[in-house]
Amino acid sequence: AVVSTQSTGGDSNINLLEYGISDHCTGFVDKMTEYGFTQLISCPTRITDHSATLIDHIFTNVCHNVTKSGIISNSDMSNHLVTYTRLFTDQGRMANKLNSRKSKKVQGRVINSDTMKIFKNEIELVDWNFVLDCDDADEKLTAFLKKYEKLYNTCFTLVEKKSIKTKFIKTLDARVCLLPQKLAIS
Questions:
Q1: Distances (CA, A) of 56 to 31, 60, 96, 157
Q2: Which one, of 101, 105, 103, lies nearest residue 161 by Cα?
Q3: Fewer CB in a 10 Å sphere around the end CB: N or C, the chain?
């Protein structure tokens, strides 16, 4: 199975903190997710005396290669905070991907508006307080990701498709993309 490794970023002036509130924002994030992209930045990137917005994005379709991403908050270069991501490239894995181009079967996930609704519903039903019971930030993140990934894998089941030209999305190691409002981290 071959999937092009893609990441994109920039100042789109679409405030992702308005997901679920603004149709424009919700449509944008849903479309990016439908095409297999995950937003890596979850904190405001432009902060003023009267507002905080998340308008500088980094989307990727290779979450499993992301070793770190975030914002640099002490930058005087702009009125926006600097966003960054660091990707790991395994040369052996890259060779395997190149060799797999000969395969005519692709494994992927169906991500569309119906499965997204189910996924959002399932996330809202979870009592996330178990994360708070963990002792440190790493344990909390691990507990959260384990539950999140289980929901992701349940809602977006793997399917096999014969043709490489498909709208199915290559298997992703799901990472935090859309946090429900009750999980807002301060």
A1: 17, 14, 33, 31
A2: 105
A3: C
CA 163 to chain centre: 25
CA atoms within 13 A on the CB side of 28: 17
**pLDDT, tens only, 107-142:** 677 778 888 899 889 989 999 899 889 888 888 888
DSSP string, 134-174: SSSHHHHHHHHHHHHHHHHHHHS-EEEES-SS-SSEEP---
Residue positions counted in the chain: 186
Tally of CB atoms within 10 A around 183: 14
Long-range contacts for 68-76 (Cβ within 8 Å, ≥24 apart)?
69/40, 69/41, 70/41, 70/43, 71/41, 71/43, 71/45
pTM of the predicted protein model: 0.47
Parallel, antiparallel, or unpaired for β 56-60 and 38-39? antiparallel
